[in-house]
């Protein structure tokens, strides 16, 4: 009880201080004299009291801001976890055949457990610890030095552990996104080994380069090529999407693809999943403001507008080409818009967000429907077509639409994006995208090769026919006999 | 005794069931089925991929009736299930040699 009251007292003191300062500007010293209650004999004594009050008030204001920012960041972290399970698990689960639903959901759920433990042991340190331009060092292994005091370089008003657990949720969903490309045919054991290596050697360096202290692409902490990536267009979506394409090509097609029809077994589940993703994405993007101030609002609004515009344009493209706007098309469009706005949210105006989302809806529709058919790869649930393509496009459009009025990241009044006159930023975005593509292709290929040689990647033909639920987990998602 | 097997549109099940009960049919077995006759199927699109669905959802009714009841039951089914368009379904009739009530070993029409 006592502990709970203290912040309230501090907020009250902060309010009192604001009244004093505000009042002294308006009413001059008269108000000051009235409100400084303690009557002290000498002037020195009065000054000492005032100084003490002032120090208390500054501390109270800082505590109040920490309380507000931390509340939003903890909620955001939970929202991002909700994007993995149940969001992505349902979205992907509905898209596979019913014999594979639990296998597909388990792939995402396993990330929630495995990546968390790995993060505590080593990957947080590799991503966000002090290191070189490419990867963090080992100073923070076992979360050594990751306490409740803020790290001012990352987020001055929230405990470092809040920052750490928030970033963890991104590290979880990123590999989970890849599972859409190898759906219905990868061994669970091979998937676990692959993902652990991928988190170590692809995600951690990429996160460090873009967001880590001294990272090569870090825009706010003095990177060599400042790449604007507010919430993970390159770190999350380009890496996962491109790695997805590589795994789809390496593993080969599912048995019978594309002759045997493999329609989604439940668009209803996918629909629920996509809507959870949309809501969770507010934590993903607006949370990336790392506080609850105006920047979070900008990112929140841009996120929502991007999703809505893309849902409309994907549906419109489908309506024109196939005669009907499908539910699956509408939700796929929304996800594509959310992907594309991820690097841009927190840098762009609401109108720019509409543009980015609108372009993403048509572009990803084209990638999923036309380009995949032309090349014939079996990116089963379109992890590349949506995340790889949408993330790449969004990262480049961020360099075009970024606006210093929303986020003066390069200093007050300095142009941010191309439309503002900073054409060089598009080049930096392209460098960031190129590094993300290269790291994903090379890293994923090497990891796949190693895991393939060690334990084999694919389930046997009989196991694939039987489905992952029974062959990998010994259970069934739907038991019609009882 | 005759067995009636009728494959009908799922949306007509309630109407057919009511019509059969009205003419005095005591019991029936219903199965959710998939199939097609001349109606063939339709196409569905998932992310631009076209899937031709040629086995459509249907409902199959099975009931065994006395010879005297047969024509009344057939009329009940056809009048209740008919829309006049392709895909309304089919009725098949076959002879039944014996019916046995498991509860008390009654045999013949009394077991129906």
Explain briefly what this protein structure is.
The complex is a heterodimer of chains A (482) and B (112). Chain A has 482 residues and is mostly helical.
Topology summary:
The complex is a heterodimer of chains A (482) and B (112).
Chain A: H1 2-27, H2 29-35, H3 43-95, H4 101-128, H5 160-178, H6 188-211, H7 233-251, H8 267-285, H9 294-322, H10 327-341, H11 350-375, H12 383-401, H13 424-455, H14 461-466, H15 468-473
Helix pairs in contact in A: 1-2, 1-3, 3-4, 3-5, 3-8, 4-5, 4-6, 5-7, 6-7, 6-13, 7-12, 7-13, 8-9, 8-10, 9-10, 9-11, 10-11, 10-12, 11-12, 12-13
Chain B: E1 2-8, H1 13-22, E2 29-35, E3 42-46, E4 49-53, E5 56-65, H2 70-81, E6 89-95
Antiparallel strand pairs in B: 1-5, 1-6, 2-5, 3-4
CATH topology of chain B: Alpha-Beta Plaits
CATH class of chain B: Alpha Beta
CATH class placement of the largest domain in chain A: Mainly Alpha
Uncertain residue ranges of chain A: 1-5, 23-34
Mean pLDDT of chain A: 92
Query: What is the number of independent domains of chain A?
Result: 2
CATH architecture of the largest domain in chain A: Orthogonal Bundle
Sheet with the most strands, sense and barrel status of chain B: 4 strands, antiparallel
Spans of at least 5 consecutive residues with low confidence of chain B = none
Order of helices and strands of chain B: EHEEEEHE
| CATH domain topology of the largest domain in chain A | Ammonium transporter fold
* Terminal-residue CA separation of chain B: 9 Å
Overall geometric form of chain A: globular
CATH-assigned homologous superfamily of the largest domain in chain A: Ammonium transporter AmtB like domains
Which architecture of chain B does the CATH hierarchy give at level 2?
2-Layer Sandwich
């Amino acid at each position: 009880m006592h502990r709970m009251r203290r912040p309230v007292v501090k907020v009250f003191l902060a309010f009192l201080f604001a009244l004093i300062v505000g009042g002294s500007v308006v009413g001059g010293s008269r108000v000051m004299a009235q409100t400084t209650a303690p009557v002290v004999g000498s002037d020195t004594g009065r000054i000492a009291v005032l100084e003490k009050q002032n120090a208390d008030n500054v501390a109270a204001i800082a505590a109040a801001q920490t309380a507000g920012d931390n509340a939003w960041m903890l909620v955001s972290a939970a929202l991002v976890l909700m994007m993995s399970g149940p969001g992505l698990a349902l979205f992907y689960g509905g898209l596979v055949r019913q014999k594979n639903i639990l296998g597909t959901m388990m792939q995402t759920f396993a990330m929630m457990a495995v990546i968390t433990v790995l993060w505590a042991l080593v990957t947080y340190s590799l991503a966000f610890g002090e290191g070189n331009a490419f990867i963090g060092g080992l100073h923070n292994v076992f979360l050594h030095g990751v306490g409740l005091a803020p790290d001012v370089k990352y987020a001055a008003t929230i405990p470092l552990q809040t920052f750490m657990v928030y970033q963890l949720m991104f590290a979880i969903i990123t590999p989970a996104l890849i599972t859409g490309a190898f759906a219905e045919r990868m061994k669970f054991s091979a998937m676990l080994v692959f993902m652990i290596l991928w988190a170590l050697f692809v995600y951690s360096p990429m996160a460090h380069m873009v967001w880590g202290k001294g990272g090569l692409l870090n825009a706010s902490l003095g990177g060599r090529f400042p790449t604007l990536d507010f919430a993970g267009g390159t770190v999350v979506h380009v890496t996962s999407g491109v790695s997805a394409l590589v795994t789809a090509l390496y593993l080969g097609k599912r048995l019978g693809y594309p002759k045997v029809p493999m329609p989604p077994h439940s668009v209803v589940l996918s629909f629920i999943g996509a809507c959870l993703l949309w809501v969770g994405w507010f934590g993903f993007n607006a949370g990336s403001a790392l506080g609850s101030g105006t920047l979070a609002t900008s990112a929140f609004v841009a996120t929502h507008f991007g999703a809505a515009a893309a849902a409309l344009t994907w549906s419109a493209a489908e309506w024109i080409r196939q005669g009907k706007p499908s539910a699956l098309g509408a939700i796929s469009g929304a996800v594509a818009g959310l992907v594309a706005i991820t690097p841009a949210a927190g840098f762009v105006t609401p109108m720019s967000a509409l543009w980015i989302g609108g372009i993403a809806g048509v572009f990803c529709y084209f990638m999923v429907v036309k380009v995949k058919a032309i090349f014939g790869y079996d990116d089963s649930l379109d992890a590349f077509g949506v995340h790889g393509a949408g993330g790449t496009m969004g990262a480049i459009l961020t360099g075009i639409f970024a606006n210093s009025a929303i986020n003066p990241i390069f200093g007050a009044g300095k142009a941010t994006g191309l439309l503002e006159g900073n054409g060089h930023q598009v080049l930096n975005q392209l460098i960031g995208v190129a590094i993300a593509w290269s790291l994903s292709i090379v890293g994923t290929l090497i990891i796949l090769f190693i895991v393939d040689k060690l334990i084999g990647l694919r389930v046997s033909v009989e196991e694939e026919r039987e489905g992952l639920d029974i062959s990998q987990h010994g259970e069934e998602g739907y038991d019609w006999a009882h | 005794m005759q067995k009636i097997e009728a494959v009908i549109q799922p949306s007509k099940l309630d109407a057919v069931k009511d019509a059969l009960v009205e003419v005095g049919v005591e019991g029936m077995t219903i199965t959710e089925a998939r199939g097609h006759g001349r109606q063939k199927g339709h196409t569905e699109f998932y992310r631009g991929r076209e899937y031709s669905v040629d086995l459509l959802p249907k409902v199959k009714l099975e009931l065994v009736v006395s010879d005297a009841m047969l024509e009344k039951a057939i009329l009940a089914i056809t009048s209740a299930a008919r829309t006049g368009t392709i895909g309304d379904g089919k009725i098949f009739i076959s002879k039944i040699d014996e019916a046995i009530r498991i509860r008390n070993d009654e045999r013949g029409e009394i077991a129906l």
